[in-house]
Amino acid sequence: MQPSKILLLLLLLLIALCAAPAFAQRDTIALNSGWQFAVDKKAEGRQGQWYARPLAQARAVQLPHTWNVEPNNQRHYGWGWYQKNLAAPASWKSKSVVLEFGAVNHTAYVYLNGEQVGENIGDGFDKFYVDLTGKLKAGQQNTLTVAVNNDYGRNKVPYGSSFDWPNDGGIIRPVALIVTGRPAVRYLHAAPKLDVRTGSGTLEVRLGLAEAAARNLSFAVTITEENQATKKVILKKTGKAIWKKGEAVLSYSLPQVKPWHFDFPNLYRIDVAVLSGRKAVDKISANTGFREVKFEGGKTYLNGERMKLMGVEWTAGSNPDYGFAEPAAEIRRQGKLMKDVNAIFTRQHFQQSDVFYDFCDRNGILVQQEVPLWGPETPSNDTIRTIAMRQLETMVRNMYNYPSIFSWGAGNELRGRNAHMKQMITDLVARARELDPSRHVAYVSNTLTQGFYNKPNFTPDAGSLGDYLMMNEYGGSWWAIPVGQIHSYLDSVHLSYPDKPLFISEFGLVEPNFRGGDERRIQDLVYHMAIYESKPYIEGAIYFDLTDYRTHYPGTSEKNKYRRRVHGIYDMYGKPKPSMQVLREMSSPLEVQQLRQQGKKGKASLLIFGSVGLPQHLVKGYKVYLSSKTDNWQGAKAYELPDIKPGQKLDFEIDDEFDGAGIITVVRPTGYVASQKSFYANSPELQPMGQ
């Protein structure tokens, strides 16, 4: 190559390098290995200053970790200590360094080199941060110590023992160190809005920064299709922000976006580089989705489509192998069990790992996320009010970007007729609306049936404070009434709050409190679903529970980590019961009723209806398969179903491979089985004709 051409190429390369901002550095360093752990059964560690020296009689553990699944510590509810050595490079002296805890149940005191640098009191499930900037010994070894307490204390939410799940103590979720330049972005909040009519969207990106240090910064923003096949970059801009309420705000109009829907969970990735002149000092990313959940005239709409919802709740910590220290793979496995029974709707009594919400985002489950205020024992005093309000604020801040979360919950079964408790719920609902006007809010009640509109001195229940009603309904078990009266009670609730959409937030059967095994569970499920589906004002339901779950409450005769309530359609390890298939079929958005041979040789016809019960929504992008067995449908021929509306009848022609018999499997666009039925007269082992 001629020297002149080489010089020209070098010059062009130099121009390109000068035009591009310097690479933004944000290192997220996992701190899950190399920890020492010591149990403190005499509660002497803080007074004895264990944080000031290496832990005695400690052993190595990997995070996440809970001591309550260990043989010698299953009933220890008190103190445990964790310690780790941490090398801080000299280059960190000028960096922002922040410690991120996924969750510590329920109280944590954090020490660095023998000095307390942070604490998190009475909040066992929220992610929290400890700023170590300027506190580390740069270029040296540092010692990080965490004291953890999971006693049944009064300065926490949930209060005391007023909760029906395990009380697993420890650093129950991963820990990381976030190292960036300065000034550093504390958070990115994405506020997307979907125009249902045009398919366009607007996006407001809000960055948590110290305004005085960030006034002159610029921001390079890229928005990309995250989980879509095309992976298109739909926006790439650099510019200044405007400042609102202490946040740097960037606003964009997007002419066309793909909405987030539980069958088409389209996500977008937002990448922001923070520029100081030409130097990139930080970068931060988040996913978002464009969707609209509306309630109008007591009815539910997603992206303008009228629908009804159906789902199941999962109680974390139920696998005795892990307890609350579930690895990411186990959380995703539980999410898949939810989708295997057609869950498009759920609630969570307490805050979960980011892994769970990311799963719901990517696989299509709408979530009501709640502050873990639970049970009539919970007081409404200033201490609990303060902790609950702080948890709500932390929860909203941490989970703001998940499109699967459509609503915030202010608690569960909290004496909703008591004036003082009702005022606390009122304040939590108001605060949730203030923190996040883009989402709905609700309170889950078990007292809606304790007074109706046609009674003297009727006072509305706390359940009416939200945007919709969430009613726990256990007629025939916890609620000791003749099951034939459930109908009239539901009617009275609706007539008392006629403008509020009504959802059944829990129903199911728990053993050993109510005996009868899975056979009774199936009967209970079928009967209750028949009631709900006969009521046009019931907008959805959540079955409780996905699995049998570990609990500190009186449960089975097993002890310690195996004590449980038999409440699930799967056992604690995820093995399905017969009720699993029943719930899957009842939660399907379509009904496959018949496989019939036609007059046309070699062809058969499927009779399919769109569901008019729970759920109800447009069936779009589904496929159907005919196979010889339940587990080999993936190798069969795929037939694309046309769109099916609720109540619509479809006669659909397929090849008659098994002489009018076989296994029919219908699959969602997300790949999960929506329905699977056998149309064999006898043996399911029938082979294809001609083999």
Q: How are the elements arranged and paired?
A:
Blueprint: H1 3-19, E1 26-30, E2 35-40, E3 59-61, E4 79-88, E5 96-101, E6 107-112, E7 115-120, E8 128-131, E9 140-149, E10 175-180, E11 188-194, E12 201-208, H2 211-214, E13 218-225, E14 233-239, E15 242-244, E16 247-254, E17 260-261, E18 264-265, E19 268-276, E20 279-288, E21 293-296, E22 299-302, E23 305-307, E24 309-312, H3 328-339, E25 345-348, H4 354-363, E26 366-370, H5 382-399, E27 405-412, H6 419-435, E28 440-445, E29 469-472, H7 486-496, E30 502-507, H8 517-533, E31 538-543, E32 549-550, E33 564-565, H9 578-586, E34 590-597, E35 603-610, E36 623-627, E37 638-640, E38 649-655, E39 663-667, E40 673-678
Parallel strand pairs: 24-31, 25-26, 26-27, 27-28, 28-29, 29-30, 30-31
Antiparallel strand pairs: 1-10, 2-3, 2-4, 4-9, 5-8, 5-10, 6-7, 6-9, 11-12, 12-16, 13-14, 13-19, 15-16, 17-18, 19-20, 21-22, 22-23, 32-33, 34-35, 35-38, 36-37, 36-39, 39-40
Helix pairs in contact: 3-4, 5-6, 8-9
